[in-house]
Specification:
Blueprint: E1 6-11, H1 15-18, E2 19-29, H2 33-40, E3 50-54, E4 57-61, E5 82-85, H3 88-100, E6 103-113, E7 116-126, H4 129-154
Antiparallel strand pairs: 1-6, 2-5, 2-7, 3-4, 4-5, 6-7
Length: about 160
């Protein structure tokens, strides 16, 4: 029986802080059996992961999936390069965008969708330090506004 819905395995929390997200794609991942078993245990790290386009194929590099604890000699290597499965049209679009300028492919999250492992891949542009500071200031201001509105609704005042 297949699983329904979406079960998140790992997320790249720093990606949205370090990059401006331009476009998001969903890609399948070509895995071996012990990798899937290890992912079902919820073990994976997208911290150093990135994607590249080589010879018309998209590859996910730096993804860490630890070895399956009950695996034998057939276990996988934890940081091997894995192929991402996308439509040809999407790959051609990504090739054009990454060659065009300062854009890169960053994985945002990895999850099970109806029993299959998927990666949410973002076409992104790196942020400068001042952009990051502006985002932090904006978030802080929004947080203060919602706090003050909450106080007013409850009838409290400073």
């Amino acid at each position: 029986m297949k699983e329904k819905g979406r079960k998140v395995i790992a997320t790249n929390r720093k990606a949205r802080h370090n990059y401006s997200i331009i476009d998001v794609y969903e890609a399948g991942v070509a895995l071996v059996g012990t990798e899937v078993k290890s992912l079902r245990e919820g073990k994976a790290s997208l911290v150093d992961a990135f994607a590249t386009v080589d010879d018309g194929e998209v590859w996910l590099r730096g993804l860490h999936i630890p070895e399956y604890t009950q695996g034998s000699w057939t276990n996988h290597s934890p940081r091997r390069t894995r192929k991402l499965l996308l439509h040809k049209r999407e790959i051609e679009h990504l090739v054009g965008k990454t060659r065009e300028g300062n854009q890169t492919l960053v994985p945002l999250s990895m999850y099970f969708s109806d029993g299959k492992v998927k990666v949410e891949l973002a076409l992104a542009k790196g942020k400068q330090d001042y952009d990051k500071r502006q985002d932090i200031a904006r978030r802080t201001a929004e947080r203060e506004v919602t706090r003050e509105l909450g106080r007013r609704v409850k009838g409290m005042s400073r």
